[in-house]
């Protein structure tokens, strides 16, 4: 009796502990099928809000009566990333068309053989060269660009007024024109006015702005990791943290506190890629003082923006390719912009009156079309993002958070960043 | 003729012997046949992944690219040399202790209360199970509002009392306490119900005899309920141990990144495994962590079992 109870318990431990190990998948290939005119359903997997509403999908159904498009929306870019890699490893389960964030696109590029070549005469000159290049891998155009994230500065005019700073967008743009030093020194003026609010939201978010302004910040063009030794990275790390000690609200970006802080007026400015407008409006729907300054420290910068890919594991790759091509065409992306503020990456869109004349009432009738076309034109540097980009960014962001939350000094934190980056190899 | 009678005599017993043999086989092997579905299923969904993970851990293995070169114990060596692995091990134990111990003690008390003659028994029992039904994601959402560093409910209440707010997301112990509280919220009621079922199986005569002998409620609880509850307690403690050491949902959803905190404050072994496998797409190393975690769980499970048996039987003897 005693013995049997013990053995059963041991077996139970071993059996249940084995669940820890059921984490391994297997890999398999997919086979594309030929097209026909019989009714099919295509799944379009996106995340956050790409601006592809029911009307747009219905329009496609009207053009191709045999095709019904169903959209699967993941809540966040991270969730979409996990889903993509898990199902890519499993060899099945992905949507016919998959959306990929520019920040983890480099990781996907490594597996170019799992995706269909989307190049066609139709989309050859659709994008600026850097956006096209981001979707090329293994000699194929595996990704077609959807939106980009040219950056401006969003600010709270009421807090600016309280600090005695100008509130009019044109005047603010003039005030902030210059490098990061200018941005920080105006921040000092703002902080000295003791309004109770901080100048910017977090060191992490601000650092993103800097990181996207270097050609080879973390990695060389051949993929060699230089983040730990590149003086630019260390300088940027230290300068942001130095400014953050007096000018930041120390709220880690995307945390619950950060969202609450936005509504509570914890900070007066934010780096504002075009897609951030939707985030601000969604998180602070009752505020009326947000404005956009047509300016960005050190000229211009791009943060984010996505691609659409067609995995080879799908059953209808030919139809999926046609859908991806259609939905990333300028006409459709302008419609998506009107729905969700995702700024088109298509060059032809920038001369379209619907875009050039676009305004946003929430941001006090800011001419968002004109502003972001200017900001897109100001982007001069195309950062190289290799396979390790995401992991390095996580290590650096963690380092910034450690200092901002008072866990470590700048030097200790930097040393740990270096250790963490070395552990990636 | 003698030979033929002999043959006949031999033949008849042989026929009987064969059917007897069948009968004996039936008795000897049928039970194994009847329980074989579990073991067949276990070998497919349990044993195979376990061994396959071992195979993966000996190779350079990309999540998508698949099998690479055979590297022997390199993945294990690499993992064991990482400071993060040891931090993750420490955090896992810390969260496990912070959750399992209070969880079982409180569950025992709740079960004892539910075992008394309450009005509306079913209502209370179902109420206890309610947190278990709520999705972990929803629980995390609620608790993240409680444990906000700046605008959280708990810190707001503390500031009203004049106590400085607790840095839930930067202090290791505070973050682990917060995660443990989510686990406890979810599992205490579940364990209480299992313990309650065990308590109701204890013959009431024991209590009546003890009451006549003059034993108070506390004495009855410690001298009858706990020793009689031993098998159930062992089950609850072992499942809580395994669940505690494999904790994933709560730490992953504790902040917006889900990678265990900027300073690995609440990095658990499963989160570390996840970061290696799905963050860096390095399945070989992730598999090595999985195997190490497996060994840790088996080890702790055995220690756990030994202690539980000792305590329970000691108390049995005292009575």
Describe the structure.
The complex is a heterodimer of chains A (425) and B (319). With 425 residues, chain A is an alpha/beta fold. Helix content of chain A is 44%, strand content 13%. Chain A contains 18 helices and 13 strands. The N and C termini of chain A lie far apart (53 Å). Chain B is 77% helix and 3% strand. Chain B contains 13 helices and two strands; from the N terminus they run αββαααααααααααα. A two-stranded antiparallel ribbon of chain B has the order 1-2. Chain B starts with a helix and ends with a helix. Classes of the chains: A alpha/beta (425), B mainly alpha (319). Chains A and B meet through α1, α3, α11 and α17 of A and α1, α10, α12 and α13 of B.
List the helices and strands and how they pair.
The complex is a heterodimer of chains A (425) and B (319).
Chain A: H1 2-17, E1 40-47, H2 54-63, E2 67-74, H3 77-90, E3 97-101, H4 105-109, H5 129-134, E4 136-137, E5 140-141, E6 143-145, E7 147-148, E8 151-156, H6 157-162, H7 169-176, H8 180-192, E9 198-200, H9 203-211, H10 231-247, H11 256-263, E10 267-273, H12 276-283, E11 290-293, E12 306-309, H13 317-327, H14 330-340, E13 343-344, H15 353-356, H16 368-377, H17 389-404, H18 410-422
Parallel strand pairs in A: 1-2, 1-3, 9-10
Antiparallel strand pairs in A: 3-12, 4-5, 6-12, 7-13, 8-10, 8-11
Helix pairs in contact in A: 9-10, 10-17, 17-18
Chain B: H1 2-57, E1 59-62, E2 66-70, H2 74-81, H3 83-114, H4 121-133, H5 136-146, H6 153-160, H7 172-200, H8 204-212, H9 217-228, H10 230-245, H11 249-252, H12 269-279, H13 283-318
């Amino acid at each position: 009796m005693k013995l049997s109870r013990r053995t059963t318990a041991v077996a139970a431990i071993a059996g249940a502990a084995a669940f820890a190990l059921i984490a391994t998948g297997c890999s398999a290939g997919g086979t594309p099928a030929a097209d026909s005119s019989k009714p099919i359903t295509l799944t379009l997997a996106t995340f956050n809000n790409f601006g592809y509403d029911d009307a747009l999908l219905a329009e496609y159904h009207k053009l191709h009566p045999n095709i019904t498009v169903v959209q699967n929306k993941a809540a966040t870019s991270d969730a979409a990333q996990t889903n993509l890699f898990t199902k890519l490893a499993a060899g099945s389960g992905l949507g016919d068309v998959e959306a990929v964030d520019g920040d983890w696109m480099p990781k996907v590029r490594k597996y170019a053989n799992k995706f269909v070549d989307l190049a066609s005469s139709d989309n050859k000159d659709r994008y600026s060269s850097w956006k096209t290049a981001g979707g090329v891998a293994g000699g194929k155009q595996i990704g077609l660009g959807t939106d980009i994230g040219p950056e401006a500065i969003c600010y709270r005019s009421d807090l600016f007024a309280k600090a005695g700073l100008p509130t009019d967008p044109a005047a603010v743009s003039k005030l902030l024109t210059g490098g990061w030093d200018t941005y920080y020194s105006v921040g000092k003026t703002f902080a000295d006015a003791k309004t109770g609010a901080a100048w910017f939201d977090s060191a992490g978010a601000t650092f993103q702005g800097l990181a996207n302004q270097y050609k080879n910040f973390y990695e060389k063009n051949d993929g060699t990791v230089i983040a730990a030794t590149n003086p630019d990275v260390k300088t940027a790390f230290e300068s942001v943290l130095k400014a953050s000690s007096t000018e930041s609200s120390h709220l880690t970006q995307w945390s619950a506190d950060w969202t609450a802080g936005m509504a509570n007026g914890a900070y007066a400015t934010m780096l504002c890629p075009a897609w951030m407008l939707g985030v601000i409006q969604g998180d602070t729907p009752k505020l009326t003082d947000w404005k956009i300054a047509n300016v960005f420290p050190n000229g211009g910068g791009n943060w984010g923006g996505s691609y659409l890919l067609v995995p080879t594991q799908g059953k209808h790759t030919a139809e999926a390719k046609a859908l991806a091509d259609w939905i990333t065409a300028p006409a459709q992306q302008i419609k998506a912009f009107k729905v969700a503020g995702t700024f088109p990456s298509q060059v032809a869109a920038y001369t379209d009156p619907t875009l050039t004349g676009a305004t946003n009432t929430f941001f006090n009738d800011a001419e968002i079309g004109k502003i972001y076309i200017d900001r897109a034109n100001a982007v001069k540097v195309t950062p190289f993002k290799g396979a390790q980009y995401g992991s390095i960014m996580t290590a650096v962001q963690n380092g910034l958070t450690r200092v901002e939350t008072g866990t470590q000094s700048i030097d200790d934190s930097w040393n740990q960043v270096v250790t963490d980056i070395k552990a990636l190899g | 003729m003698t030979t033929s009678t002999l043959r006949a005599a031999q033949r008849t017993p042989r026929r009987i012997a064969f059917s007897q043999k069948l009968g004996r086989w039936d008795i000897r092997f049928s039970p194994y046949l009847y329980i074989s579905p579990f073991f067949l299923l276990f070998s497919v969904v349990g044993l195979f992944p376990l061994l396959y993970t071992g195979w993966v851990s000996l190779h350079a293995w990309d999540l998508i690219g698949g099998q690479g070169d055979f590297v022997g114990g390199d993945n294990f060596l690499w993992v064991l040399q990482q400071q993060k692995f040891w931090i993750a091990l420490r955090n896992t134990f810390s969260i496990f202790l912070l959750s399992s111990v209070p969880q079982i003690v409180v569950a025992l008390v709740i079960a004892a209360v539910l075992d008394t003659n309450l009005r509306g028994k079913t209502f209370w029992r179902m109420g206890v199970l309610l947190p278990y039904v709520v999705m972990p994601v929803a629980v995390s959402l609620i608790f993240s509002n409680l444990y906000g560093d700046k605008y959280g409910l708990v810190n707001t209440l503390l500031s009203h009392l004049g106590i400085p707010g607790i840095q839930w997301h930067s202090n290791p112990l505070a973050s682990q306490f917060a995660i443990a509280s989510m686990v406890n919220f979810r599992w205490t009621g579940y364990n209480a119900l299992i313990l309650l079922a065990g308590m109701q199986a204890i013959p009431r005569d024991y209590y009546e005899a003890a009451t006549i002998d003059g034993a108070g409620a506390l004495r009855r609880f410690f001298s009858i309920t706990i020793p009689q509850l031993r098998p159930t307690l062992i089950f609850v403690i072992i499942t809580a141990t395994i669940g505690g050491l494999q904790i994933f949902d709560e730490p992953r959803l504790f902040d917006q990144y889900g990678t265990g905190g900027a300073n690995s404050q609440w990095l658990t072994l499963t989160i570390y495994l996840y970061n290696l496998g799905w963050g860096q797409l390095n399945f070989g190393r992730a598999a090595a962590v999985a195997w190490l975690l497996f060994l840790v769980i088996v080890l702790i499970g055995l220690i756990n079992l030994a202690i539980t048996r000792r305590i329970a039987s000691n108390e049995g003897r005292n009575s």
